[in-house]
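re: ur msg from earlier - yeah i can do the uridine-diphosphate-N-acetylglucosamine complex, just paste it... oh wait u already did. ok heres what im feeding in:
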Amino acid sequence: MSKIIVTGGCGYIGAHTSIALIAQGYQVVIFDDLSNASEESISRIEKITGTRPELCVVDLKDKNKTNTAFEAHKDASAVIHFAAYKAVKESVEQPLQYYENNLFSLINTLVAQQKFGIKNFIFSSSATVYGIPESCPVTENSPVKRPFSPYGNTKKIAEEILEDNSNSGFSTISLRYFNPIGAHKSGDIGELPNGVPNNLMPFITQTAAGIRKKLMIFGDDYPTKDGTAVRDYIHVMDLAEAHVVAVDRLIHKKQKENFEIYNLGTGTGYSVLEVIKAFETQNNLSLAYEITERREGDVPIVFASTELAAKKLGWRAKRDLNSMVKSAWNWEKNYRKENS
Ligand code: UD1
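and the outut:
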């Protein structure tokens, strides 16, 4: 059974990926500093999979502690690196915290991997590196631009570091996520942002749960079908399964280049209003919302070309928008019931 180290594995995407890895027979060890996620994720993963992943609480900004954690797991076959801060607005207010956390933890991880001979690495990147794309669908060859936020820039810089670090002895796959939403079908795990959500789906589910009064739609004067911005929403379990495919590719040495990049999206763009409508229809409820000003830095339209991932990884997203909005609400409802 190959051992995979999942950094940031208590977080939203990391926990769903851990579930998908365990389901495919991998042994998962989670490295997390619990700064933005809870240990409870471990019990939730156990409840769903029947296997409790080992948790190693470690701050990857600390080089010595990182080395110690890796030494104990030097038999791992690969690392999937989710551990990072991800709040766009906060990164504009506190850029150094973002550069320090996201880049030091990346470098310490890579140095520890080099030291202990763990040669496979998967990186959690973002479509934010494309900025405002000239055309859609966005392929992996579309120009990378300086992202609007320090958060986004840490993803761009990280990819540059990874490209330089990849060679015949070290293989990397960088996965550029579009907009991951939804939750595991059990409703036992899902997205749980701290404080007021910045992203659309948790704001919608919290509004439906009565925690937020109404959803503000950021702009209805974009050049789109209904004026609201268009994104490529992808079910978090599809995203999780893509990581498993990428791990298989690295471990079985199927990759063609030492550094590969793949978009992870569905290839279909939906507007904010379409997402709201799907949420209302599928869950049989109505959502309070209001149109307001555009949000600074927002991209009008972005959706992925999924051809490279289909051709090289043999992976395509399987779940549709209805499944995304239903699972998101199922999780939110369950969680609020548990905690009421
Ligand atoms: C945002 C980040 C992106 C990051 C991604 C994942 C920005 C500019 N981009 O992407 O860098 O990788 O999250 O964390 O912040 N919307 C509303 N009302 C809301 C929230 C969102 O109308 O309360 C709209 C937005 O204008 C956008 C869409 O919903 O059109 C999706 O927004 P969001 O979920 O924040 O994702 P992105 O902005 O695409």
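cool cool. The longest helix spans residues 95-116. ping me if u need the other ligands too
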